[in-house]
Design goal:
The complex is a heterodimer of chains A (344) and B (294). Chain A has nine helices and 18 strands. Chain A has 344 residues and is of the alpha+beta class. Chain A has two domains: 232 residues, P-loop containing nucleotide triphosphate hydrolases (Rossmann fold, 3-Layer(aba) Sandwich); 93 residues, Nucleic acid-binding proteins (OB fold (Dihydrolipoamide Acetyltransferase, E2P), Beta Barrel), CATH 2.40.50.140. In chain A, strands 6-7-8-3-9-10 form a six-stranded mixed sheet, sandwiched between helices. Chain A has a five-stranded antiparallel sheet with strand order 13-17-14-15-16, with no helix packed on it. A four-stranded antiparallel sheet of chain A has the order 2-1-4-5, covered by helices on one side. In chain A, a hairpin with a 2-residue loop joins strand 9 and strand 10. The two termini of chain A are 38 Å apart. A two-stranded antiparallel sheet of chain B has the order 1-2. In chain B, helix 10 runs antiparallel to helix 13. The longest helix of chain B has 39 residues. Chain B has 294 residues and is mainly alpha-helical. Classes of the chains: A alpha+beta (344), B mainly alpha (294). Chains A and B meet through helix 3 and helix 5 of A and helix 8, helix 9 and helix 13 of B.
Chain lengths: 344, 294
Amino acid sequence: MARIDLDLAHSYRPNPRKDEDYALLPLKMSFADGGAYALLGPSGCGKTTMLNIISGLVVPSQGSVKFGERDVTRASPQQRNIAQVFQFPVIYDTMTVAENLAFPLRNRGVAPERIRQRVGRIAEMLELSGQLDRRAAGLAADAKQKISLGRGLVREDVSAVLFDEPLTVIDPHLKWQLRRKLKQIHHELKLTLVYVTHDQVEALTFADQVVVMTRGRAVQVGTASELFERPSHTFVGHFIGSPGMNFLPADVLPGAPAGAAKLGVRPEYVTLAAPQAAGAVAATVTQRQDIGTYWLLGAALADGSVVRARLGGEQAIPQLGETAWLTLAGGHTCWYGANEELVA
Amino acid sequence: MKPVNQKAWLLILPVVICVAFSAILPLMTVVNYSVQDIISPERRVFVGTEWFKAVMRDDDLQGALLRQIGFSLAVLVVEIPLGIMLALSMPAKGWKASAVLVIVAISLLIPWNVVGTIWQIYGRTDIGLLGAALAKLGIDYSYTGSARDAWLTVLVMDVWHWTPLVALLCYAGLRAIPDAYYQAARIDGASKLAVFRFIQLPKLRGVLMIAVLLRFMDSFMIYTEPFVLTGGGPGNATTFLSQYLTQKAVGQFDLGPAAAFSLIYFLIILLLCFVLYNWMQRVGTADKTEAGHG
């Protein structure tokens, strides 16, 4: 186990020139030993590429991968002693659950007695003990995914466990069980976990640190609340939250800091104000939706830009077509420059 | 309960008529022949099961049947592993993959009688590349003189003609295995042999069953190639079932025994089909329950 340092770029094309040619633009990233990380981003943002570079399935076209002080850029997955769980459960059809779990150890020539011991322990941890002698092929998807995970954990001293959207094929009601299991394993074994997903709820509940990625770039690394309160890039504001952050021209409010082109405010922090109240802006209600625990309001400002607000149900919600007065500025307001980056 | 509607019978009537004329009536004609001694078009005598008894006791037929079973088994034993090996060594993508696919498929496009002719010339010791080369090497080879050589030539010819089919089926099966399996195997530290044994072979099970079925049935009915190449000789060395049957029916005009024998032949194939079909169905259901769970 060690800290993982990436300082690299990767392109699947032989001679990358433009930014678009890169799957991963030049980046530096560190994963602390024992941390739980999530790589979050839309399809094609480079998160799986980054995962495969860590595991050694892909060799970066430039730069290096270090585990602690050891340079493993060209080391095979086996030499790196990495465990990886894929989107679709990978199991060896002809083997029993126990044989599946024992497979990585057998390949490494571990003594049978030791294998039995490890398999027993991991099966117990993953609640597979009762199914050890069953054919793995006949099991349900969540059990298969547990076996995939178990094959990673069965080795002692794995450097890190990597997950590539492991819950995609799992039934919703089993998802949270499996996710809790992962958290529990993280707690017990103190392993470094890196979890790739496009689902923000999954990323934010699983990881201590979330890496938000888009177009081959890691735009922000932070805790759930950092990503929510201070998105360092408009993409993060957009991608995290439901609905995403409102972005408005900076001149809708007075007092924009120098260099600010956009104002960002979370729908959660937009509040109703009294007509003509200081700092409030007038907007025409264009959308009004009862979400159950709250109301989702869409309102158009004078310049045509739309603000969405999450409002508690205890207040009077303006009707469609009415003019609502909204407070946008406050402690939670973020300002963004023309390059979409946070300025204040 | 669903309402009963007898109109459906009308709709399947065309199929019934087609099948009757193409299969049932000819088969009944054969059944008719098999229980009669046809002396001349005007004179025929009912003989009951006599032809069946005679045919079952016929040494030539028993010989042909054994030869046929031996040949079909040899075809499977050689072509299936060879096809798998070929598929494993074919490139997976790029222009090389397309080129190799075309080259491998060429022999499948050649008509049966042409295949026979090609090998007939290829094996000749005076002008054939294979025959002349073997003669030069001092190997006494003659597919017209030696029973062993003739048999081997027919087998090699079939392997040359049909292994590509097995290879293409396996190739398609291999390409259908998701990359994640290979990646997981690399992470688990599996050797190449283990990847083959635990990933590729189990995933190829479906296509291999189809390959076995096709090759077994096809080789069991082989006729044209040995007919062109060796004419069944030397002696009876390469006379397989269908050729024996043709000799009897068309050559000697022994319609009764030939009909009795073709019914037995038909029953053998029906039995094998039944066994293979059930075996495939059972494995198919097992796969489906797996998929249902997963």
